[in-house]
Amino acid sequence: MALRGVLRLGEVCIRVLDMKAARRHYGDRMGLIEVMTDAEGKHYYKAWDEHDHHCIVLREADSAGIDSFAFKVYDDQTLTDLEEKLNAYGIPVERIAAGVYPKSGRRLQFVLPSGHTMHLYAEKEQIGNTLGTSNPGVMPDEGVVRGFRINRIDHVLLGGVNIDENAKLFQEVFEFDMTERLVDADSKQSLALFVSCSTKPHDVAFVLQPEPNRFHHVSFLLDSINDLFHAADLIGKYRIPVDVNTNRHGITRGATIYFFDPSGNRNEVFTGGYVHYPDTPVLTWDTSDLGAASFSQDNTPRESFFNVLT
Amino acid sequence: MALRGVLRLGEVCIRVLDMKAARRHYGDRMGLIEVMTDAEGKHYYKAWDEHDHHCIVLREADSAGIDSFAFKVYDDQTLTDLEEKLNAYGIPVERIAAGVYPKSGRRLQFVLPSGHTMHLYAEKEQIGNTLGTSNPGVMPDEGVVRGFRINRIDHVLLGGVNIDENAKLFQEVFEFDMTERLVDADSKQSLALFVSCSTKPHDVAFVLQPEPNRFHHVSFLLDSINDLFHAADLIGKYRIPVDVNTNRHGITRGATIYFFDPSGNRNEVFTGGYVHYPDTPVLTWDTSDLGAASFSQDNTPRESFFNVLT
Amino acid sequence: MALRGVLRLGEVCIRVLDMKAARRHYGDRMGLIEVMTDAEGKHYYKAWDEHDHHCIVLREADSAGIDSFAFKVYDDQTLTDLEEKLNAYGIPVERIAAGVYPKSGRRLQFVLPSGHTMHLYAEKEQIGNTLGTSNPGVMPDEGVVRGFRINRIDHVLLGGVNIDENAKLFQEVFEFDMTERLVDADSKQSLALFVSCSTKPHDVAFVLQPEPNRFHHVSFLLDSINDLFHAADLIGKYRIPVDVNTNRHGITRGATIYFFDPSGNRNEVFTGGYVHYPDTPVLTWDTSDLGAASFSQDNTPRESFFNVLT
Amino acid sequence: MALRGVLRLGEVCIRVLDMKAARRHYGDRMGLIEVMTDAEGKHYYKAWDEHDHHCIVLREADSAGIDSFAFKVYDDQTLTDLEEKLNAYGIPVERIAAGVYPKSGRRLQFVLPSGHTMHLYAEKEQIGNTLGTSNPGVMPDEGVVRGFRINRIDHVLLGGVNIDENAKLFQEVFEFDMTERLVDADSKQSLALFVSCSTKPHDVAFVLQPEPNRFHHVSFLLDSINDLFHAADLIGKYRIPVDVNTNRHGITRGATIYFFDPSGNRNEVFTGGYVHYPDTPVLTWDTSDLGAASFSQDNTPRESFFNVLT
Predict the structure, then answer these.
(1) Which segments in chain D show pLDDT lower than 70?
(2) B66, B98, B121 — which closes off a domain?
């Protein structure tokens, strides 16, 4: 059976302190495509190879961080089923009518045990990837793929309390697989948990934080190590603040760069990683090898990983 | 929901004319890992980053081609459900006991409308990818990844009659998505159909042939364009017969090399391609642009694509 | 001692049948930077990482081919010395005053034994690579590197008679090294000769032809195999006629694509190849292995290599 | 004229504290090919695509650092000429007979203003790159290119006093070009100087240090960014101490990893960088942009660059 149920991360709404600087960062520099501004002044972006209307929404606010994130589900019946399952699981669900969120069908809204606001929706207007669907070819016109050459939004990492409960919810209600876990070597407490609803090593992950509803990063997919290095060169050119330059995560095996938007929100560009299936063994890392788990090319944990969130 | 139901291509049984030459090709040169020889003289191979015991079985015979291919399903209940669905669909199913196929749980066996023998199974012994599951690291020991640096088996392309019926079966019974179609520009007849049960642009595909049960190719996944070029260099070094050297398919957007094993069975190494979701629009190509559909870097169709099968 | 004497291929003047189509090809599509049009309607191009004003001159004419090519030498004294050496060698030299060729200092002009017109010059206006020379950074502004992402002009391959005499002249007068030779397996006649004045496997090469003054191709340097594949994708997108898609030359070990401009002049994009030094052994290939010598990934010689020139 | 005079860095003799650990590092892990052990217990290594017998000599000693480095020159006459020029320049030269250094012809030995011992030689036994010289092919047998997939030795960076005098000597006597300079933004004092005798952005460089005869690093050439990332993955796997993980130098534009051998000697793997010619403008960086000059992807200078040497 192909993917059904919850399909993928479809939208992240990020608070930024200065919209002009944010648009330069996400649009001009990273190369995400600005598709819309709404009446409230929010700006909407997509990556070139996505078909849906947008994946990133920027909202100007007094504090940085994440307003909400949303997963797209297979169809409206899936929404109905999941509302029932969430209610049965004890998670209060708010219904949001179609159109309240632009270009989007009706949504379910609820708060995770970690304090984050999550949405589910089944419909969003599709505007395509410029190639069309009949003898489409493989290369968009020059200028469509630019900046960091981002293909798609990939995942978010959320910081908060109760991350075991988050993972349990995603596994039991949304039927995600746990793919990897980082635990304290002594107490075995979960420090970070990675779950997948696809063949990716993670579609969303949770990192333990003393406070709820913190934002660790949103990650974007690149095609290759060469494109990762190209993005790193551009990050350097634009003097974008770098958290961790090109490296490889132990967890997920993905090649990565962490950097910050002008409001201090962490972004990632990501490529590679293994292919996950439900029968892939769960990988467990512990703090006795925290360096390799986080950044396997120099086996050096970064304090900012657990301390710097918005 | 993560992948459930039919998960992935798990096994292809290939007939070879000369086992010694075949072992040199698949093992020594391509770098697949030989894991077992059975009492009948069949040789079993896996790719390094697969966890299951094997994905390729070679059987010496008087004619080249494919004996059968098998998909792994989520669990035993899925097998039970699919047997019922196949029966209801009108496909006779043979039950094969656990252990008849080495390292494998029970299987369902049946014949596709195209004439191919297909298996489903839920269990196969897992031997892992050498990294372990506790603080596993990301790099196997040197020598584990060698030859063409193949990560995994990827898909098969089967030639036969009744390919629309094949696709219907995969969509209706196995719940695959149709991803792309190649049709005759005039008659609109289906010439090749691509279906996916994952985020890959195809997990199996069917190409129209006048005769049933023909084998077009088995494809193996590489990490990068660099590894594709490395494989091409080795193919050249070993004077392996090349069907089509490095190019990019229009259909699937994957980068490819087609070459032949010593028995004339076509192999492919493959990397890239887009990310498919159930809501990705189906792409349709027709013979008015057959060159771009098949090999988009030189827009040149190869006759062998429709004429050379085993 | 650093490079002195004859430094590098600095200019190729190509005849095109239709300037508008040629400009679309070399400028819009390949991404060479058009820097000037002269009073005679010739168009001048440079690659982004070259410092000199231009490397390609297009002239509209009734036949395709090459008007002349030019090497830059170290300084004016080198010109004086080489004029003397050419005269002593028996090659008549014509002096061309500074400014006759735009942006260029004085030139020596002469005809090679193969029938080609060659220039030498020591001065050409430098306009830089946009990075400057003081804390320059490493990345030009977006849009500077576009199209095929060409870094530099690399070499030309000239077809003609008397190629042994060409090679002798380049070795004895210009002090190039012979790097590789392709000879007939039986007669040992030279079929193609490759000479270098740098650490590149060739700066110019000669292929035996029954007629003098034929143009085989001009080649442009790319950064990586990834950029080669990107160029191949664009070549496919624009339906540029492909002679040989992505492959690797045995001779020079360079990765290559051969394609044609709208006038039928062959172009190449090229990356890789070994590092040559004067003490690197000369490599000899013969026609018993012509496939590997020319295209080592499929060991298949192409007739067009010896038959299609302008 | 092809390269003549001083050709390239041909040999670096490194002191190591523990030969067993050093052999595991340079041979087993990095994948340099051990070609010889001499009567004094020194171990000799080459990179696969070099033709000469060796480029690295390891000597066990009580302190880490560099014993000497050597450049190969074009021929014996060049040695004679350079001895005369060195004497005229005021540098005392010691003659070392052929055979004193294994596999090597006669040498000139002298001490640079920075305190380093340098050799020049014209002859070293050639053992080739395994491909042969007649229809050689392009791919060595599997196992020849392994570990970090190092192609060649590339350059050394030497720390010491009087670096301006070093650069002057290399320019005036050895006819190298200055390619780049790092200077103090206020005093304009030279902090690091880069000189080339080829088309590489440097063949040797000098960094200002309060003490003479310090060793900053020896650098090895890789083919691609992909191979750089592969080396980084292996460095991580083997827990080799990393100084600076994958990044790009502003100076030279080369992609880099700095890491340490078990004795604390710094090594680098390097790929890319621009093509230098004598008419390429000299690039000047100053300490007002030290981050970009050293590591352009995160614009972050590392203290260890000026403080950690052997």
Answers:
(1) 1
(2) B121
Q: What is the ipTM of this complex?
A: 0.96
Predicted confidence at residue C1, as pLDDT, reads: 65
d(C-alpha D67, C-alpha D265), whole Å: 12
What is the DSSP track for D22-53? HHIIIIIIT-PEEEEE-TT--EEEE-TT--BS
Chain C positions in Cβ-Cβ contact with residue A138 (cut-off 8 Å): 233, 236-237
Q: Which of A28, A135, A141, A142 to mutate to test the interface with C (most CBs of C within 10 A)?
A: A142
Q: Which of B279, B280, B285 has the most A C-beta neighbours within 10 Å, making it the best mutation to test the interface with A? A: B279
Q: pLDDT per residue over B276-292, tens digit each?
A: 999 999 999 999 999 99
* CB pair distance less than 8 Å for A138 and B250: yes
Is A87's pLDDT higher than 90? yes
> Which member of C128, C152, C280 has the closest CB to residue D51?
C280
Residues A211 and A72 in one domain: no
Closest alpha carbon within chain B to D148: B142
Q: Which of C121, C141, C172 corresponds to the end of one domain?
A: C121
C254-260 and C266-272 as β-strands: parallel, antiparallel, unpaired? Answer: antiparallel
User: Are B115 and B179 within one domain?
Assistant: no
B125 touches chain D (CB under 8 A): no
- In this structure, the strands spanning D214-221 and D152-160 are antiparallel
Nearest CA among B114, C283, A100, C279 for reference residue D136 = C283
User: Which residues of chain B form beta strands (DSSP E)?
Assistant: 6-16, 33-37, 43-46, 56-60, 65-73, 94-96, 107-111, 117-121, 152-160, 177-183, 190-196, 204-208, 214-221, 242-248, 254-260, 266-272, 283-286
Do residue D274 and residue C3 have CB atoms under 8 angstroms apart? no
Q: Are residues C17 and C64 in the same domain?
A: yes
Asked whether C271 and C254 are in contact (CB, 8 A), the reply is yes
Check whether residue A161 and residue A260 sit in a common domain. yes
Inter-chain CB proximity A139 and C237 less than 8 Å: yes
Beta-carbon separation of B233 and D146 below 8 A: no
Residue A133 lies in a domain: no
Closest CA to A146 of C234, C223, B223, C145: C145
Which residues 138-157 in chain D show a CB within 8 A of chain C?
138, 151-152
Specify whether A172 is located in the same domain as A117.
no
Helix (H, G, I), strand (E, B) or coil at B171: helix
Any idea what the CATH number is for the domain that residue D15 is in?
3.10.180.10
Query: Does D132 map to a domain?
Result: no
Sheet containing D6-16: order of strands: D33-37, D43-46, D56-60, D6-16, D65-73, D117-121, D107-111, D94-96
Give chain A positions within 8 Å (CB) of B197: 1-2
> Domain residues for D261?
152-303
Report how many Cβ contacts below 8 Å link chain A to chain D.
68
Confidence of residue B122 (pLDDT cuts 50, 70, 90): very high
In terms of domains, do A170 and A105 share one?
Answer: no
CA angle B113, B114, B120 (to 5 degrees): 70
Q: What percent of chain B has pLDDT over 90?
A: 97
Do residue A111 and residue A160 come from a single domain? no
Q: Per the structure, how many domains does chain B have?
A: 2
C179 in the same domain as C99: no
Contact C200 D198 (CB under 8 A): no
* Contact call for C248 and B235, based on CB within 8 A: no
Question: Residue C196: inside a domain, yes or no?
Answer: yes
Is D147 within the bounds of a domain? no
**pLDDT of A278-300, one tens digit each?**
999 999 999 999 999 999 999 99
Name the residue with tokens 């974008």: A240
The answer to whether D24 contacts chain C (CB < 8 Å) is: no
Of C3, C49, C200, the CB nearest to D278: C3
Judged by a CB distance cut-off of 8 A, whether residue D237 touches chain B is yes
Distance from C-alpha of B281 to C-alpha of D196, rounded to nearest angstrom: 55
